[in-house]
Amino acid sequence: MAEAGTGFLEQLKSCIVWSWTYLWTLWFFIMLFLVYILRVPLKINDNLTTVSMFLNTLTPKFYVALTGTSSLISGLILIFEWWYFRKYGTSFIEQVSVSHLRPLLGGVDNSAPSAASAAGGEADANRQSVSECKVWRNPLNLFRGAEYNRYTWVTGREPLTYYDMNLSAQDHQTFFTCDTDHLRPADAIMQKAWRERNPQARISAAHEALELNECATAYILLAEEEATTIVEAEKLFKQALKAGEGCYRRSQQLQHHGAQYEAQHRRDTNVLVYIKRRLAMCARKLGRTREAVKMMRDLMKEFPLLSMFNIHENLLEALLELQAYADVQAVLAKYDDISLPKSATICYTAALLKARAVSDKFSPEAASRRGLSTAEMNAVEAIHRAVEFNPHVPKYLLEMKSLILPPEHILKRGDSEAIAYAFFHLQHWKRVEGALNLLHCTWEGTFRMIPYPLEKGHLFYPYPICTETADRELLPSFHEVSVYPKKELPFFILFTAGLCSFTAMLALLTHQFPELMGVFAKAFLSTLFAPLNFVMEKVESILPSSLWHQLTRI
Predict the structure, then answer these.
(1) So where does this one cross the membrane (predicted)?
(2) How many angstroms separate the CA atoms of 9 and 180, rounded?
């Protein structure tokens, strides 16, 4: 019985929805016809006469107050809509309409898949959204003590956000700690140090750990946060390397003796790789680029499976500094693979190499006359591919947008990744003659190839919609986050803005010219109701007088 009652209610609701969807026009005209027929019993004419007399007795001050109040209310709605749009990226009125009114008016698609398949599709979409908005460790992140802190001392601004530093703390706990640290006093102190929020407390804990033992992770913390120059950081990393290699050799011999030894060996491996990578970065920053390249190549050969550090991106940047373009192409051939995750470094470096072959002789006027050659077409396609992957990069490379220090974590395809790439690679684009000119002439053509509103991509997956929120968490507040695609203002913001302006103008005109606005209002209303009066006269002339008399007596 309950199921039958529920089915009947659903059928009744669907019938009502169908009638409102298709028959509302007929209902509207029927209601107008009934109101006109019953105008005598309802005394509509008398009421209209009374209303018109009341309106004629009103002073212009009333109309000024009315239009002023309307302007104030619409202005308040406009301010709220604008605030809601800036904070949440959507219109409050549209959201309420879609969420609450649309289901009542039959906006739900009846041809939707089953609940199980819908739930599965929603879960897949959520998983894809999470994977697209995954935050990655910046392979070229700067040193806190020697670079980030120096920026703070000079400018008084904090280049790192709390969210970014919190992610770094989680990375340090993952890479540099294990379950057996409590068995060694120095490692136990460092395990607590990585969880400390106060930088001075972390540095003090590292010094305390070094008093007990030669602890590699303590040297890492001091090199990252206490050293004020790259030279000091390199010295500390060399001491960390000596301690880390000893721990690595000991744990390597015991890794097969149990799960705890295996976890300790994995931790020691992460520590050793991190130290060698940072030493290579120190050599690169101090001008010993060839030494840095050798250290990175040796590290990639020794630990080929540790791809989480993305050492190949450090290697690409160092090779570009040496202008070893053949070696850069060899690295790209290995890592620019369809099965591997892409990055702005890979896509834009590939575009730079192809642009280098044609950019010195490229001229947009000549290309428009004779068309693009095969090499030029390949370069343009590579630029379009790179811009589709990360559309924020060109404005930084073309210096249309100011650069800031890159964060310690980046969001692929986001503004944070664009800043990190341009910060280190802008000099390489400037070194290739004509490369930035070719980029300037061709990068905007990418957006003509991508379907709008980005329901699907051209060469990559559709651009994720979550990048703006994540980038605002990663980048400092003084930086204006680049947003793609540009959000269009919702209709109701434009509507309320127009309504507020129109009513404010009416209030001002009514206050300044009351008599003229009264004449204008009467002329407007008479013109507005002229078609309705014409229709009513035609209806009275067509219908027989006897029938019309009987209908009015109902």
Answers:
(1) 21-42, 62-85
(2) 64
Q: Cα separations (Å) of 59 from 51, 52, 64?
A: 15, 13, 9
Alpha-carbon span 279 to 272, nearest angstrom: 11
Confirm if 407 and 420 have CB atoms less than 8 A apart: yes
| Separation between Cα atoms, residue 41 and residue 486, nearest integer Å | 58
Indicate the angle between helix axes 24-37 and 2-22, nearest 10 degrees.
70
Rounded CA-CA distance 80/92 in Å is 9
For residues 350 and 333, give the distance between their C-alpha atoms in angstroms, rounded to a whole number: 10
Closest CA to 230 of 294, 147, 313, 160: 147
- Maximum distance among all Cα pairs of the chain, rounded to whole angstroms: 114
In the predicted model, residues of the chain with pLDDT beneath 50 are: 1-2, 105, 107-132, 452-455
What pLDDT is attached to residue 468?
80
> Using CB atoms within 10 A of its CB, is residue 188 exposed (0-12), middle (13-18) or buried (19+)?
middle
For residues 542 and 554, what is the distance between their CA atoms, to the nearest angstrom? 20
Query: Distance of alpha carbon 277 from its chain centroid, rounded?
Result: 31
Check: CB of residue 252 under 8 Å from CB of residue 266.
no
Q: Radius of gyration (Cα) for the chain, nearest Å?
A: 35
DSSP summary character for residue 143 = -
| Cis-peptide, bond into residue 406, ω within 30° of zero | no
pLDDT in tens, 104-154: 545 444 433 333 343 444 444 443 443 447 888 898 889 998 999 999 999
Token pair recorded at residue 149: 């802190």
Nearest CA to 170 among 466, 412, 467, 409? 409
Q: Give Cβ neighbours of residue 192 (< 8 Å, ≥ 6 apart).
A: 205
**CA gap 277, 269 in Å, rounded:** 12
Instruction: Map tokens 């730079």 to a residue.
Output: 352
Whose CA is closest to 171, among 138, 201, 213, 200? 138
Whole-angstrom Cα distance, residue 14 to residue 226? 70
Cβ neighbours, 10 Å, residue 404 = 17
Q: Which ranges in 229-343 belong to alpha helices (H)?
A: 230-254, 259-285, 289-302, 311-322, 325-335
CA-closest candidate to residue 160, choices 173, 147, 171: 147
Q: What is the pTM of this model?
A: 0.67
> Given this model, what pLDDT does residue 360 score?
78
The pLDDT value recorded for residue 492 is: 62
Task: List Cα–Cα distances, 532 to 25, 43, 49, in angstroms.
Answer: 17, 19, 17
